[in-house]
What does this fold into?
Amino acid sequence: MKVSGFNEAVAFAVAKDERYRPEGYQFIREALEVILKKRSKAKHQSPSAHVTASELLDGFRRLALKEFGPMTVTVLDYWGIRNSGDIGRIVFNLVEAGAFGRTENDSPHDFEEGIDFHESFILPFLPPDPTSKQTIVSPQSQLPVS
It folds into this structure.
């Protein structure tokens, strides 16, 4: 189905698949826009180049940590996003609504094992284990400086 605008596509997708809130769809679009904007600043890639599942997942993870920090899991859970597979299903709901494009090689399964939510969104905010001698890396140190 083709729709005229992104908000209409989200309404179509939410009506068809009630597991995910509209805010989750909007956030995935924001993550995609951040990736494309970053590409347009880079001289080696066109901003219109195809974004892979792994690129989108990484951009999603980075933006979620930047925007929500230790509340990321709570926010994502409220939107119905509990794992990488949910992100893939949202993306393909938007593809079906005509808001996103895809190549013939793209599949919702490309998203399945992309982000370990516990490792990415919970562990970085836990207090360090006093018996561990590992160096703790903060999630903010993993984000690009803009």
About this structure: The radius of gyration is 16 Å.
